[in-house]
Batch of 2 targets.
Target 1
Amino acid sequence: MPSSQLSPPDQAAALNPAPGGAARPRLGAVLLLAVGLVVATLLAAVHVTQGSASVGIVELLGLLTGGSDDQTAAVLVASRMPRLAAGVLVGVALGVAGLVMQSVSRNVLASPDTLAVNAGSYLAVVAVAAFGIALPVAGGGVVAFIGGLAAAGLVLALSAGGGRGGGTVRLVLAGSAIALALSALTTMLLLLYPERTEGLYAWGNGSLAQTGMAPMLQLGPVVLVAVAALFLFARQFDLIALGDDTATVLGVQVRRTRLIGILIAVLLSAAAVTVAGPIGFVGLAAPAIVRLIAVRVPGMQKHVLLIPAAALMGVIVVLGADVLLRLAFGGQTAVEVPTGVVTTIFGAVFLIALALRARASSESGTGFVIGAGLSPRGRGLVIAASAVLLVVLAFVSLLLGDAKLLGGDVLNWVTGQAGPLVEFVMNTRAPRVAAAILAGAALALAGTVVQAVSRNPLAEPAILGVTGGAGVGAVFVITFWPFATFLGVTTGGLLGAALAALIVFGLALRGGLASTRLILIGLGVSAAAAAITSMLIIATDPYNAAKALTWMNGSTYGRTFPQLIPLAIVILASVPLLASARRELDLLAFDDDTPRVLGVRLGSARLGLLAVSVALTATAVAAVGVIGFVGLVAPHAARALVGSRHALVLPLAALLGALLVCVADTLGRTIIAPAQLPAGLLTAVVGAPYFVWLLWRSRRTA
Amino acid sequence: MIRPTIALTAAAASVLLLAGCGTTENAGEASGEAAIVVTDDRGESIELSAPAEKIVALEWNTAENLVALGVMPAGVADVEGYTDWVKSEPLDEGVTDVGDRGEPSVDAIAGLAPDLVLTTTDLSESVIAQIEEFAPVLVVRGADASNPIGQMELNLERIATVTGHEAEGEEVLAGFHEKLAEGTAALEEAGLAAAPFMMSDAWPNGGQVSIRPFAEGALLTAVTEELGLENVWTGEGDADYGLGSTDVEGLTTVGDVEFLYIANGDIDPYQNELAGNAVWQSLPFVQSGKVHRLPDGVWMFGGPSSMNDYIDAVVATLAA
């Protein structure tokens, strides 16, 4: 296995390995830093003129000449400057943290986001608030640090197996899965303790606004000291980039340096989270941009220069996003839209660009077939048992909920003899159970197909952004055509899903679908889709929590049978199609040549099968909102039980997917009744650890 | 892998066996002729054979109106929240909580077997349709920024009609108008006629403060204007509740006004988070000491009872 196919460019363009060769920084590099400083300063200057008060450039210039009043000064000192300071602090902290994480892991995709540091810090802060422990800002910083460190440790441990430095895709996947699970837990806490965690929801998207300088004055020194400390290790980071062995030969204590680097990086990200909430993808994009520039400038690749450059670039990205937000929405409306939403969209685009530059590798496609542990007879039994279990659980799920029913009630309902109460409860509960089962089955089928077609066991509609695209389409229709019928919403979802699939598969087609590129592009699209959905909801319907919950977290609330018709039709149409294509799926999942030799038309077979999975995904999203992990977990579990033949995998995956969502939905309706938790949160809490376990197991074979 | 599956199946099957024997109810009942007909804000006409007695209210303003008319609802969404925010018409002990206002539990509502369910157009249509399977639903518009007081009165009147409490409804409305007149007179006497004001609430967001100004068209803004004061906040609000959004900087557009706000308990960003903020301190109304926190529990989107409390609070605060 290649040690790391997305290594920072500075590894490829090797440094001068001579021990005494810490050449003085070249003039060009220093000039470039100066240009960066000028750009950052200009952005800062624009930044202070923007805001909801009518304090613009004229008034601010008036301050210098004494022509403005006290209020202008107050706005500058107590509102604009704290916001600017927060932007600078967050930009420096995240930019440098990302750079160091990338350097010590020799992986250009390592960052506070992909290592789940932000999600871990945020969860820790929310958990402390939820359990009623009030902390001063500095105390909050400690909590954020511990949470972030725990998350990063988990991700690094999980992804460390696949060769030194860890495989890129494993790292990003473990990070994304853990981040998803942690944010699902965070959202649950926000829902369970709304009064104690009030305000933390909007903060969860990352916003720079501040009411005073206190947080920056407390955490600014921490950031300064941390960045300064990194300069002491600059040369060791340079050497680690050459490879562990070379670095060891040159006298670097690789493990120790790596640990120190990660600790400082986590500290920096925690400081940023404490000040402004999780601001997405800055830690990924800023250092990556710096590295792209650095390869073209002689002498620039030394960490002595890379660290200040990443800090400057972080500031430019954060302030740039904030300035752009206010230019687009105007000073008043921009108050509502968190800056982190914009940086996430920026960062997602950048993640895709990085993925496109990556060389295709053979990393994916191996190590994930756990093997069939069962005899042929056992396989049949498992499928039959799952079917029975599904029927039983569907029945139990009809009984459970806010009002508990008894079996006889359901029998009466089925035979039309139930009294009004049971009739009513069943009439509302049955569509929800049906929605959960159908959507679970559809997402699992779509996942199975996508994994086979892309020959990538980590692919699934949610990770590939197709589910997110469907969500954007559906929310778009609801937002701009409030009276749209359910068919309209489904159509919107379909268009969104198709567009996302087109982008992801279109971009990944170069170099073959079965590459790590597909996953990375997909993750980028899915992050962007989540950010756009959240922006649409915050900007147009900020007080409608129920709407946000359904579309961001998946919910069967309020489903009726007629709304399930599109989904049912698509499933009914897909089943015979997929059944007849089971051989093609086996062949496509095997390799490129065998299907060709056997006369399968690769292009059209892939396209047709993908279209089926897009339709399944879109109708499922229209029915229950965005639910992740089902399409990934169900096919894996199915393959682990019955092997890789799609004749068996397809039905079992569908059954397991239906089971997972059905259980999640039932728990969500029952645990805190009469209030409810969205099904998608519970599938993330259940699905993400399973996924992590898969990654852990696959460590040995990778 | 097979063993847990079997164990689970067996466990589930035994649950079913235990549960499978009974039912939770007896037979249904018949209905008579329509005696009351009301058109709601969807344009649907609600027909009732008799005044509704067992009622579930899914939005707090409808619950408040019921209590004001002398009808204790059987179920209310988020009873705890109601008790915190709506002090004008307290609920009895026995009122059932039917879940969150955003996603009330249809099970819980059905479980109460209500004669009528009251909700607002904020609830999704498919949920309203589900509830209609088992009970008539009167859907009112929670608020209308083009006619805030009129909408509030209309909502009360319709609830009075469907519960057969028209006389009490007229009384409540008459009381509200009397209260308005008294308040206007008291404020005029205190020399506050045509005094400029701004109404808002706010909450802390991490290290930040989100401010929600009540724009032109918000119920509280309209009532305060009826009291003879003049609203100075010119920002836009939403089409229903007339709510805007801004930050501390945004308040610099407001001059020396009576600055009214509602907070809840310890959560008071104006006193806590903003106290030391230079922008806040630079605001003319802060410097002249015209920042007034109104008492807790005056529901800002409520009915005449809440508005009566509000008028009392404004008069007591400003004219004292």
Target 2
Amino acid sequence: MTGVDLWTIVRFVHILGAALWVGGQLALSLVILPLARRMLSAEAREGFVGAAGRRFGLLTVALFVPVQVATGVALAWRAGVTWESLAAPGYGRVLAAKLVLFAAVMLLAAAHGWAHGRGRRDLARALAVAALVGSLGVVLLATALSGA
Amino acid sequence: MSTGPNETAAPTPERPRPGASSASAPRVRHLRAHVVIVVWLALALITATTQHTLPVAHWLAIHLFLLGAVTTAIMVWTEHFAVAMLHAPPPDPRWGGVRLIALNVSAVAVLTGVAVDWPVLAGVGTLGVVAAIIGHVAALVRLGRGALGGRLAPVVGYYRLAGVALIAGAVLGGLLATGALGEAGRTGVELAHIHVNLLGWVGLPIVGTLFMLWPTVLGVRMEDRTVPVARRVLWLTGLGLLLAVPALLLGARWPAVAGLAVYAVGVGWASALFLRTVLRRAPRSGASWMLAAATCWLVVGVVADLGLMATRELSHLDPALHGLLPVLLIGFVGQTLLGALTYLLPVVLSGGPTDRAALADLLDWGWRTRLVVLNAGVLLLFLPLPAPVGAVGFGAAAAAFAAFLGLAAAALVRSREGAVTGGAGGAAAWRAPLAGAGIGVLLIVFALVAAGLPAGTTSGGGGSGTAATGTRTVEVELKGMAVSPSRIEVAPGTVLRLEVVNRDTQRHDLRVEDGPRTPMLGEGESHLLEVGPIAADLEAWCTVPGHRAAGMSMTIAVTGSADGGAESEPGHGHASPDGLDPAAEHSDGWEPRSAVLPPAEEARVHEVELRAVEADIEVAPGVSQRMWTFGGTAPGPTLRGKVGDVFEVTLVNDAEMGHGIDFHAGALAPDEPMRTIGPGERLVYRFTAERAGAWLYHCSTPSMLQHIGNGMYGAVIIDPPDLEQADREYVLVSSQLYLGEPGSEGQVAKMREGRPDAWVFNGGAGQYAAAPLAARAEERVRFWVVAAGPSDGIAFHIVGTVFDSVYKEGAHLVRPDDPGGAQVLDLAAAQGGYVEAVFPEPGHYALVDHDMRRAEAGAHGIVKVTP
């Protein structure tokens, strides 16, 4: 492929979205939340963690999910993916697995927001970690799709 | 000091530990060592779970576990306990660190060397392992000098002896891994390697440590007789190994059995003591239950090993031992590691009593479920159940291990934070993220399984401008003598990849017409076949003889091209030239197969090793043909003896498919000695030649038509008791010759229809015309003839002579002093006999199959008679 065309940009946006979302989760859980736990008072921490979670959730719903779905569908259409080919071993099946895992991760993230709102901290933490680990799996499958 | 000698060796562990500092150096060292152990365990688990994807994965999983995780753990803990039990000052931690690093780096070298097939690296790694262990043993010996020596000091003897065992085991392993050994004696070295490592390096420290650890974990006082029992058990197990390992190495079965029995008595004695301790107080904690179950599996494993060895030839032992591996590796070694770490990690990693309780609480999480699941899994693997049940068993055991690994990782992370901040924090705080991580990992695993990973990589069908149909990957199953799907339709130009999985217990491969082929695949193995762009219809089939005929083929059809089939008809198809060029010359360096038959050896027992190998042989002038052979030649070596002689034939299968052997000269049940053995296996075939004659031997594996037709035959000559001395003796094995890819459709069709490309003596068309047999005038020359077929017999005649002596199928038809004479020795397929001729004068006497079709097509030669 030579030069930068429209499709390069679509793919760029798709990958950038994934990087932001997965990277955002990693940064939150590996850098920001541990520091908040150590450096902030219990009260301040509560407020900070809540605010950070809400903003990340808003970004996810308002920007990330629509952009990923739109660019993903466009890329699949461009690659000639059909419903039928999703069941075929190889590219189709990996893509299907990735879509299902992505959907599961989004459900987990949504459930995390709900649990956090209800003050069920343990459940919320479990769901957050599950969503993070699951999203790493989405990245793994995406790598498998473009690799080889 | 948080890990003073008395802490772990003390029979009453619940004592609070005064003044434990949170970030003491030993604690940090333990932390690091256990991170390494957990990483090894995780790698072993991942490899074991995905083992069908890599050829060396089975080996790799076992060695990641034993050489990586278990060896590191034993090194760390034996030193730790030795200090405690000898009441010795701890050795220089720097050297301990150097040894651990050397061990781990060397282990990585060994594993990498074998995985990428780089023997030099594996050899260097082996030397490193040996060096690290020598250092370890030296440190243990040095600890003993000048130490106060506690009551349990004799246990350190277990650790020293174990170190010596690993040195021996590593050297043997190095010989195997680097291939320095060749094939000779491989079975013995393998068996010795397995036993000295599992029962010596791993078994001894565990049994020794349990004398102290078992009562400690149960929270009771040690039995008074523990020390004398420990001493005696050390003697018994040590002597047992000293007897069993060299015996295995030398292939002496009964001394090995005796050694193993002595070892078993030692283990039994120790177990009896442990049992008495349990009777005083039943196990309550996860650690104690796991240790108890592990000890039971040790007893089961050793007794089963003993039973197998007592009832089977050593050469048959290896496959049977594989059934025992789950018991010893998972049930005994793995579970001991789990139980011991569950108890010991809180002891060495905690910063104080509260912290310790929290860590213990964390590691105990769900132990009842894990215990039951793990042991049920081992039981399912151990019992002779169908394969899917075994897979469930493995899954259960793996899940229990994975759960422990998660907990151990959490304990290590938590302890590290504790070491840094001094904070305690309840174990409960880690359960939520742990559960979350578990859910996430499970989701990924399901997604990977659904995606068909990691059984094969996938194509970049979505790449630049290529439609998803540009590359197609299709899963192909080999099962039940069928290839499924049996038909694949692709658009013209599609780049096709076949992900071939063998779901059958038999070995199969898949070969694409004019294209690539998979290696022979064992049960559960898979291979990705890059067929490339498809322009015309193609066939693909399993090349194991008879399998294609039984239906193991598939069609790759191009859609929308009605004439695709015609196009695909390969003009130059199978390399099977019709007819041989009679004017051709043998290639440079060609040597005829010697027909000279030496007299029978005096020895009454004939030991022979026959290797089933494929070889390219010049079967006619300028024509090379891939043959399946016994010993690299077709026919295989001629065996000769007298009536009553014993032949002990070791068949070694170095080929890619199964082979067996059938000696017509002996009578044995076809089931066992004539059974087909797989690649890499050995079979000892022992028969007594009760009757004289010229006998055929041949491969006993179906399709025999193809195995014999491709060269797997030979002669056994058993002299009649009254056999007169002749001046010269020759042996001629006659057979049909079929050219072409062995097992290919074209070749097999010719075999079925009895249309050989040539008829040959001793495997070469016209070879004794090019290199005549020698004789002198007036000499009595005896010609032994065996008709190997597979389908035609022979009418053996020598132009210009009269046979005055004919011996056929066990009877003299003509003797020299009879008035009659004979012109032909007629043999049906598989018959044999001899004729004698006295050549009247110098000259060139043609020896032929008097069926002239055959004589003209290769079955002819010359006896050059000189004055």
